[in-house]
Description:
By secondary structure, the chain is of the alpha+beta class. The chain has helices spanning 2-27, 31-44, 48-51, 53-73, 77-163, 183-186, 196-212, 230-250, 275-281, and strands at residues 168-172, 176-182, 218-223, 258-262, 283-288.
Amino acid sequence: MKTSHIRTGLVATAILATAVAAGCSATMPPNELVSARSNYARASQGPAAQLAQADLDTAKKSLDRAEAAFKEEGDSPETKDVAYAAARSAELAESRARILQAKQLKDQTNAGQRASEVDAAQRTAADLVKARGQLATQGQALATEKERRQAAEQRAAQAAADLAKFASVKQDPVRGMVITLSGGVLFESAKWQLLPAAQSKLNDVANALTKQDVDSSIVVEGHTDSQGTEASNQELSQKRAESVRAYLVSRGIAADRVTAAGFGPSRSIADNASAEGRANNRRVEIVVKPKS
């Protein structure tokens, strides 16, 4: 009887151990299923949710089959195979999503680069158009300036030719154009009032100067011979220069363009020992100063 009880206890113990083992196997999924669950959870929270939805759906269906196999068969080879396939399916969804994400980034980068290149090209084209416009404007300005200078030179040449008919005209590289009129033609001896004939000649001078240039400054210089005192000659030369200046202004030359200066006998051009030399020294020089 004791032997029978022992056998019965051993059988009960074996049945309990089998039940515990079965219970443990039902709650402990295989590593393949654990990986499949983890892979799918990661994929569903990543870019695959937007970029690889079809692949993610396939992975979900594969995982559902693995879960069903585990529920029905436990930790069986079939469960492991299906779970392995589910894990790879989730990895595939992740991989494809990363590829698509990289392609999108590349496309965006290329699009940005193309936009920058287009913008740069447009700016370059605009700069070229602007540069051409500036060159055209500069070219027109140069052409206009050239025409103006040529016209001024022609007027100066004509004025010099007109003046040469009744006065001595020379070009001085420093002083400018120097028009010399004899004092004997312009004034009586020791006087500074203009003679009637002098006014006619100064009319021609004024006409020639207004033809030549309306901007250049003019200096009227009075000169005498050495006879008489230095003070009287200085005064006479100054008043003669002022008389000529006043007449030129009365003929239309702007007053702010013309100044008068007397030099007495200090700038003689001939020997005062002879009558001819003294006559040459008694003169008025109208100096048209070159533009700076």
